[in-house]
Amino acid sequence: QVQLVESGGGLVQPGGSLRLSCAASKYIFSIDDMGWYRRAPGKQRELVARINKSGSTNYADSVKGRFTISRDSANNTVYLQMNNLKPEDTAAYYCNVNRYGIYGQEYWGQGTQVTVSS
Length: 118
What we know:
By secondary structure, this protein is mainly β. About 0% of the residues lie in helices and about 50% in strands. It is built from no helices and eleven strands. The model has no long low-confidence stretch (mean pLDDT about 95).
């Protein structure tokens, strides 16, 4: 059973930075895309950022210019560099990995809490 293990969350002041990491417990073959979602209290889960196997990325409008997603394909690891954090970024952040097609599979991490507060 593959697990995604997230780390890097915590409490940070507005304007601060955090780097989230997500690593798979076992090798996942043929990953198509990897991404980060978040869920704030009382809100629906939303896409934060996604990166595909070609390295193309897309971001939620609210984080463009502040967050950067990257991946280490050889090690099945995805990162989210978060700069200039705002209180509205406070949420549980979840890692997501997808393989499409006949052997399609979706994986989710357990979540890591990010709290932005002074």
